[in-house]
From TrEMBL:
Its cofactor is [4Fe-4S] cluster. Residues 59-286 form the Elp3/MiaA/NifB-like radical SAM core domain. PANTHER family: ENDONUCLEASE/EXONUCLEASE/PHOSPHATASE FAMILY DOMAIN-CONTAINING PROTEIN 1 (PTHR21180), TYPE II SECRETION SYSTEM PROTEIN K (PTHR21180:SF9). Keywords: Iron, Iron-sulfur, Metal-binding, S-adenosyl-L-methionine. SUPFAM superfamilies: Radical SAM enzymes, RuvA domain 2-like. This is Biotin synthase.
Amino acid sequence: MAQLDTREKLAILADAAKYDASCASSGTAKRDSRDGKGLGSTEGMGICHAYAPDGRCISLLKILLTNSCIFDCHYCINRKSSNVRRARFTAQEVVNLTISFYKRNYIEGLFLSSGIIKSSNYTMEQMVEVARSLREDHHFRGYIHLKTIPDADPELVHQAGLYADRVSINVELPTVSGLKRLAPEKDGARIEGAMKDVKTSIADNGDARKKYKSAPRFAPAGQSTQMIVGADAATDGEIVTRASTLYDRFGLRRVYYSAFSPIPDASTVLPLQRPPLMREHRLYQSDWLMRFYDYSPHEVVAAADDATGMLPLDIDPKLAWALKFRESFPVDVNRAPREMLLRVPGLGVKAVDRIVASRRWRRLRLDDVARLTVSVTKVRPFIVAEDWRPVLLTDRADLKPLVAPRRQQLELFAA
């Protein structure tokens, strides 16, 4: 086989990394090199695809160390039996690329994942070496996210956390049965064991840094995971419940959802079509409800269809819940507690906080609420204001068409 140059390797391994969704860069420690020591920063504006909570775009070099793999997971395009072009970086090549891209102001950090070559330990050693060299040899202070391998020696995973800002371990699929069927070489118990070890290390490091300021940081941006949606028969209700369990048990920063995408020469056990991308979007919205809107998992699951367990695709989960539990509304914006205001469709966290702050000084009218939301039409049936009471809307059987977003054909040459 002909030897590939760095550009050809980059084209193959950057494309192969596109299936990894878990590459956000939020929550890390603040570091920069304005003092003249080291290289890089975790702050500033980026040009690519990862976004911080404050809306900053963080650019990451997102690649695989290699797309060769000794495993044969049915859903993975890089599986052992897949007929794809293979490539492999050395650790030094990844380091050189990261430094070169940073100096050209292309990136602010590195997201590194990999197929399994030779063994889990060997592959993990190579990934740790990339992070070590960047930190110690080049004093790189930018963001590093390593996708760790649960089958690797725990000490290697621990070393990854000492050099990386965030580590992630993929649970792959929402259910144990799905994992056994589609990725029989992977062990769900071992995956969770590795996630538990990372959680323990993060907690221990937090305690150590309270006592000793010189204690090294361990994965300051926490850990995350990713599950594939639509490759198995898991319902949205099962996925939401699984995500909630992972958040509670392992203190995850994020659970990412990746809609299954049909791959060339696919296994016969996989579905022929990908799930609607809107399904992935609805799962992210349900995740948001649990993390920021104080919804319990069973409340989010209750928004799904009772027969199928699937969230509706035409409306968001928050509106679906409100329409299903009409007895909880309308909510008085001048008196209701914050947790009930958060359940009003069309009101976000910032809008609710402003309502709570404003009503200390005056009674809020419908116009006041309208200034805080994109569409007051969606809000009106669910609230009571100083000059508004939804008398005719409260018990309407056809309320959904009035508040659901209207479908419209976009103009191809609109100004």
